[in-house]
# Entry
Amino acid sequence: MCGIVGILGKNEVSPLILESLKRLEYRGYDSAGIATVNLGKLDRRRSVGKLLNLSDHLVSNPLSGKSGIGHTRWATHGAPTIVNSHPHQSGTSVAVVHNGIIENFNDLKSKLIAKGANFESETDTEVIAHLVHKFLESGMHPTDAVKETLPLLQGAFALCFLFSGEPDLMIAARQGSPLAIGYGNDEMFIGSDAIALSPLTNKISYLEEGDCAVIQRHSVKIFDQSDNLVERKINKIKPDQTRSSKDGFKHFMLKEIFEQPEALSRVITKYISADGKSITIKCSEMDLDKIEKITMVACGTAYLACATAKYWFEKFARIPVEVDIASEFRYREPPLTKDTLAIFVSQSGETADTLAALRYAKIHAKKVISIVNVSESSIARESDLAIPILAGPEISVASTKGFTNQLAVLAILALKIAAEQNQLSSPQLQTYLANLRYLPSLQNDVLDASPKIEKISRKLSKITNMLFLGRGVMHPLALEGALKLKEISYIHAEGFASGELKHGPIALIDNKVPVVVIAPTNDLFEKTISNMHEVMARDGKVIFVTDREGSEVASKGSWEIIEMPKITHLFAPIVYAIPMQLLAYYTAVTKGTDVDQPRNLAKSVTVE
Ligand code: AGP
# Structure
């Protein structure tokens, strides 16, 4: 994780770097720092905690200079302290900011210490500064010093260097972690993503694996892994990649929850024809009619979107589906056949494990499709086909509209594959598409019930454990409800398939444990209700999430009821996700936690 910015500017750069770091704070907020070249010398300011602290620090201790690098940290090696904050320096010759992990840093560090180096931090990054410094001391030009250093580093990194006596030079390198160059007029920029650079320029190029870029105000030279001078395409950033504001909502998370009907409508309009008869995802080269197996891979909430979609692919297309967590998939080397379609789901499009898994599948599977929110992301760029989920920028660490739009795109893709494989007749397809088109208005109905959910959440702030139960297509949603709650309220929560309860988890039930039972009146309703009664018989406090019919027949004995609109079909999770999000949100607000930037987390997980 971590966010990186670099600017060779016309004016003072500290305020601009700070502004760009704010846009990268979703990547980590354990500490932050900026280094500049001022009157030929390196100078830096660093602060622990959120950027606000660095901003305050800069007010009392201004930092001058027209070239600089900045960093917002998600700690990997070493606690969030000033000495562990970036930029790191060795002596006064070089400063570096780093996103990623140097896996062989212990070995490098021991060798450097043996040669007399003094380390001030516990970070892996500081070895990079020492190595470059050592080569500079031997008389090398900064470019050569960096090029000598890079092959010594194992692991994933995005780096940006600044040198004393070189106010017109930044060097950037990428291996495994994303990095973009921004082109200005007599100015140049480096950023972890386009969002960071969007107020500074709309012209961006992305470094590729192994690239090293030597940047001056009027020139950029990019060298590939084999040290050949190469060109990388310059793209124009679209306005939707810019960071948006809270628009009057207390938190980005709440705003994003309320944006769901609009975001879902965008997916429906884009991927379902206006007459509601066909699917307009362009995928003629994907040979969808020849697929015999599907493998889906992702992390966290995106993984749970895949787990939900498994039900759809298997039901509609009758194709066997495997769903895997990316960090497991990438090292398991699962046998993939040439008739397997591999689907990768990632809001950010930069999740390191998902990207690594994708690279494995590119070699072994028939085709690779990614479902992403950021169209220019690494995952999108490396896929045979990238389908954008059109959720708009998701700033809150907890994914909400990203999840429901991932579900919607996966549902449409499942129907598309089913149609290509002749598993659905036209009338059947049209019925399913009509069901989907109706969902935004049902989401709106649920949002109208948010005051009721807020009231229930006030009763949850003191609890320490909570369970979520669901069956069939609602099982992954039970897991998502638990993930959302623990992520932002720090309450321990677990989700289970309701049928699994009696195989162990039922031992957890007592009168202090609220149990959310997700039960629309579908074909599995009666089964779920039996499990709910097993909870009630043991004094569990049931929060019953169901429709009016369900509530009329089975609510007796529930602690609370959240009434949902009637949805019997398989797409119900796209609507039932909202009460899970609101429960987590209002509970976190009542507890007073940092909703948008919960502790220990970051939005884009670019380390494994
Ligand atoms: C969601 O609330 C989480 N913050 C997290 O699980 C997230 O979904 C996961 O890190 C995957 O991220 P991605 O979609 O950007 O790949």
